[in-house]
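Hi V.,

Quick status before I head out on leave. The structure for the redesign project is tokenized and pasted below; the design run finished overnight.
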């Protein structure tokens, strides 16, 4: 996947190739997280968008059914007595119809002769008005709403208020083009349907929310909770567990170095972590931040919400990890990408973590699936450059503060000697 960004939040320009593992480094406040949010919004605003629009139309049609068919409560009782499906069921069937004749035939079949012609005509006109809403306009509206939520209403370049925001993606040779003006999607080209969601992990403490209120969570974190709570039917669980045990054996082995326990549901449907060695049950809030980072990944794999060819976005994943666990997490990322052919976008400030990613990518034959970018501030916004051919530029920026500290220490010693 190739991604081009112009005037998105803090970013003036960025051209990236997202293949395998994409690493973005740079100083604070230089737009690194903006890339992840853009990828996340692009995928999750458009995933299965046609069916989502159809469901919204069906929901509105069902409301018209409720208002017009059940003005008298006895009408609903009679409807149920006749063994008819709910209005939403019929609305979902009829949401794709665009011709008067096919809607009328459907309604007559369902309603029989209980309603007169003027009533049927009125209902058909309402349905046609909804079904004939321009698809392109509805999709652009849905995309606008989603991007505004993720970017808190600041999609455009904060340094150039009048500049248009343009996002172009090339996926499997197909184009997705988005243009925003004043936080509204004004242009859309969509040559491919998005079928995979993106998962964005930026805060391991979101795990605590499994047992507490969801208040205070943003849309990204609520989506993580929704995925963590996902459960499968018993048969699916058997298939998934078998699939994991074989294809993900190296990944699970790596995870179990840190998180060999399991998350279970206890009394009052509260979640706890059960240690695999001592069998001790721990409240999720009492787990260390580092352990939570591994538990989240493990849960997403075991419940089947992290799947092949998905997009995984990790915002500074090393921040809560001891250097030894950073090595384990870096190896986990490489193994996970290799097993599931994931597109992984991650940001980092850690030289140690970056070195580990490079090492394990080489060890497992994924060097050609890694790209490295450096974000830097400019007068008109932040610019993200491909430094894959010269990663020393990233290391130089990471090492400079240590060199400065050594100079300050030497200066302090000289001042003390004087």
């Amino acid at each position: 996947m190739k991604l081009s960004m112009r005037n998105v939040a803090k970013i003036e320009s960025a051209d990236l190739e997202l293949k395998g593992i994409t690493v973005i480094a740079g100083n604070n406040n230089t737009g690194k997280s903006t890339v992840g949010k853009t990828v996340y919004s692009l995928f999750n605003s458009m995933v299965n968008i046609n069916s989502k629009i159809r469901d919204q139309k069906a929901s509105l049609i069902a409301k018209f059914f409720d208002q017009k068919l059940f003005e008298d409560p006895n009408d609903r009782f009679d409807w149920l007595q006749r063994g008819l499906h709910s209005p939403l069921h019929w609305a979902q069937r009829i949401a794709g119809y665009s011709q008067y004749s096919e809607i009328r035939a459907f309604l007559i079949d369902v309603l029989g002769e209980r309603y007169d012609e003027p009533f049927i005509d009125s209902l058909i006109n309402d349905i046609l008005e909804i079904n004939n809403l321009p698809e392109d306009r509805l999709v652009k509206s849905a995309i606008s709403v989603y991007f505004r939520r993720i970017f808190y209403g600041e999609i455009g370049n904060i340094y150039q208020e009048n500049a248009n925001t343009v996002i172009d993606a090339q996926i499997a040779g197909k184009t997705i083009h988005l243009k925003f003006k004043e936080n509204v999607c004004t242009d859309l080209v969509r040559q491919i349907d998005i079928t995979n969601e993106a998962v964005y992990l930026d805060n391991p403490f979101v795990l605590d929310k499994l047992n507490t209120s969801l208040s205070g969570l943003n849309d990204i974190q609520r989506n993580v909770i929704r995925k963590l709570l996902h459960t499968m039917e018993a048969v699916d669980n058997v298939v998934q567990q078998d699939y994991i045990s074989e294809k993900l054996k190296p990944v699970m082995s790596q995870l179990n170095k840190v998180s060999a326990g399991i998350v279970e549901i206890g009394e009052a449907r509260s979640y706890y972590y059960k240690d695999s060695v001592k069998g001790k049950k721990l409240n999720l809030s009492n787990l260390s931040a580092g352990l939570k980072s591994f538990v989240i990944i493990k849960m997403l794999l075991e419940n089947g919400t992290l799947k092949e060819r998905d997009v995984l976005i990790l915002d500074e994943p090393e921040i809560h990890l001891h250097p030894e666990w950073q090595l384990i997490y870096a190896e986990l990322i490489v193994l996970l990408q290799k097993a599931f052919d994931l597109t992984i976008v991650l940001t980092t400030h850690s030289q140690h973590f970056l070195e580990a990613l490079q090492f394990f990518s080489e060890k497992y034959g994924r060097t050609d699936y890694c790209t490295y970018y450096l974000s830097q501030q400019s007068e008109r916004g932040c610019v993200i450059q491909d430094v894959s051919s010269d990663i020393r530029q990233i290391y130089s920026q990471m090492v400079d503060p240590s060199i400065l500290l050594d100079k300050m220490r030497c200066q302090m010693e000289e001042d003390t000697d004087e």
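Above is the designed sequence. The first strand starts at residue 2 and ends at 8.

G. will cover questions while I'm gone.

Best,
W.
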